[in-house]
């Protein structure tokens, strides 16, 4: 993998490693801990899905990693964001800017509002080459057409002069993807890339994204609340709740054998054909207000397995061991009863 | 702002393809910042109406409190100037022309030897009367015509909008110069009438726009589908939702109307003596700025503060009614 | 585009007729122009009748209006009180007022937008609150007060400029009067661009521009400003007409012989050709400015279609 990337990264340094990231929102009504000691890593060519309900801190995490947090009210108050081993949080503003878009790109949920309404899509794509690579107007334009063809937009040569509102939702999201791909970055963060689309278009866009990711061997962080999207494309999953990571696991292990009551609740609430007629399980209660996260385990008020210890002690993400006592690779769970849950 | 979660939301049944929406409020790319803590005043988490919400917001806004107090004070002295002065604004002593402040006459005297303090106090009446009456007239006429145009659409709309354009097309100060130079009345009413005549199109545009917006609301469409009559629809469903923008624009207009009256009086076509008006006094004092700046300072200051109070009030109310700007 | 312009021009016709007719009626009510012509002396009834007939004054008002408009479109605006053709007066007055308005608009754009952008980007900070407070005060103090005070300070007290403007009315001389004329509009432009910037700065497309790794100035100029200034352009366009009309106050303070001055003389002397002529031209300017705004709007915002 190191041969393909310009920076000769050591094989054991992951592409992106987030360590103990903390983000606060300081508002008039108080301080909200939107992200609390979140750690995860993504390798080249790997897809990590960050799964969580709205308000769980997954988008804020993505913004903090990209360095595009609205500040104020959002502030990164701790942790590290290591990109190929170098901490972005301590890097200078100019250095961060050079990384953004060129080596680490982002795809947003709603392409209609994420694209500038008064500039042609061609201008918005070409801008990447002009700013980051200093190419000429003509060259950049040709590259823009090429990009649009790559993401399979029909009649790219003429449509390059159209404005975002003249495209359909799916086509717009393809343009967003093209923009992210423009400089062949090492990492793409996709924040709910298909949520705003029709169900039929969702699959097409997701397939395109997955295909391009394989082709360019990019790392992909896929932020979503949709368990269905995750199963098809992700290698690993991190489940977030109340600004914290509850469980991380390779995708199939997680589906087969979750090790956190919250994950289990989520999985049980998916309707399945083989269980037609059964009542659906629902996670009881509501996600907590981030200004008043319950002490101990934040999930305890909704947890079916809650004990006294959950109210007092906050469980940290810890590695899981199998029945044979050996550590299960890539698996962690932030639950006092992770073993019981795993072997339930 | 995230809506309060409900049990149904959190466990919404499956969408197509066996997918599940964990929560239905995640529509923006911005992860919703924290849900606001419930207000400290008890279990009042139940949603307030637009007006109650605005009032809650306003009471805590110092700009609103200060400007509202100033306006209350102004209105009081406009009605009862004797609350703060014993003098008579028309009793003047030429011997004291342009003299500075003296005991019992803190603001000094104007060219005619009248007491500037008393005249400044009495000047509030003309300004407030013109402002309030002109605004009320323009708001009534404007929201009536604009509301009907927006509600009925079609040729009513075209006709009313073109008529509004005609009045809108006349530059307001020039119009005043032409229209008011004909009049030889020493009351405030010609000025009020003129401001209403040229002021209503501004309000009617706002009213038309907000009625059209309100009309498109789903519940209004639903009421129509259920067979509600036009009048009932207009009064019960459309008007209450369209009235907020009109009130805000009218409040800000009130301040500018007061300034307009002063400008017209300055040009000699607004209020006329013996009406006591800041505009007239400023107009008389301005050329004397070198000899007796106090003559200009006090009425100009009073006028500016009055206009400021109304504009600030309008601003505060607009911010309170438009949660988007908070 | 062409069809849209034609449609808008056609829509302007009834508005133009309505506005000018209104003015015409009001001026008609100003008093008897024939009596004004003779001043204090009572005119000989036969002569008066003859003049009335020549001036079309013995006709019903709508016929007078039609006759007048017919003449206007042949370039004949009638005769002013001093015997000069009104067109000649316009030739002298309009360039002066246009220069004054131009100075004001340039100041309004340069200062207003700069202040608005600066405070919009720093919303809630001390710069922002200071700018906001100053704009409120500027809006509240009437132009004629600021005019006299600034004239006194710059012209008399400090002697930086001449207190009144010469007949040439050069750009240099018009700097102070232009500022006075611009002040209130400037405050509105500042507030408008501030609000617009503050609303757009959190927009998703701005976030995208940052995520693309664009330098800050490019994010602001190319992405944020272009979108935020659309409503500001609309305001400034409509304001041109307002400024030309409002120039009358400024012209009076600084003794500038522009449109406002001539109009004022016309009103004082009951000279209807002057008044109606000048106001008619101003109404046309106002309507054209509005049309121009609509066209600019459509150019700036591709989402607007010429329907």
UniProtKB/TrEMBL annotation, chain A:
It is found in: Cell membrane. Keywords: ATP-binding, Cell membrane, Membrane, Nucleotide-binding, Transport. Belongs to the ABC transporter superfamily. Its main location: membrane. GO terms for molecular function: ATP binding. It is a peripheral membrane protein. It holds the Pfam family oligo_HPY. It comes from the Bacteria. Residues 18-267 form the ABC transporter domain. This is ABC transporter ATP-binding protein. InterPro entries: AAA+_ATPase, ABC_Ni/Peptide_Import, ABC_transporter-like_ATP-bd, ABC_transporter-like_CS, Oligopep_ABC_C, P-loop_NTPase.
UniProtKB/TrEMBL annotation, chain B:
Its main location: membrane. It comes from Streptomyces meridianus. This is ABC transporter permease. InterPro entries: BP-dependent_transpt_permease, MetI-like, MetI-like_sf, OppC_N. Belongs to the binding-protein-dependent transport system permease family. Residues 33-42 have a biased composition (Pro residues). Coiled coil: none annotated. Keywords: Cell membrane, Membrane, Transmembrane, Transmembrane helix, Transport. It is a multi-pass membrane protein. Residues 1-47 are annotated as: Disordered. It is found in: Cell membrane. Residues 124-314 form the ABC transmembrane type-1 domain. The chain crosses the membrane at residues 63-80, 128-151, 163-182, 242-260, 296-317.
From TrEMBL, chain C:
Residues 94-293 form the ABC transmembrane type-1 domain. The keyword Cytoplasm does not apply. InterPro entries: BPD_transp_1_N, MetI-like, MetI-like_sf. This is ABC transporter permease. It is a multi-pass membrane protein. It is found in: Cell membrane. Gene3D superfamilies: MetI-like (1.10.3720.10). Its main location: membrane. It comes from the Bacteria. Belongs to the binding-protein-dependent transport system permease family. Keywords: Cell membrane, Membrane, Transmembrane, Transmembrane helix, Transport. PROSITE patterns: ABC_TM1 (PS50928). CDD domains: TM_PBP2 (cd06261). The chain crosses the membrane at residues 12-31, 96-118, 130-154, 174-192, 228-254, 274-300.
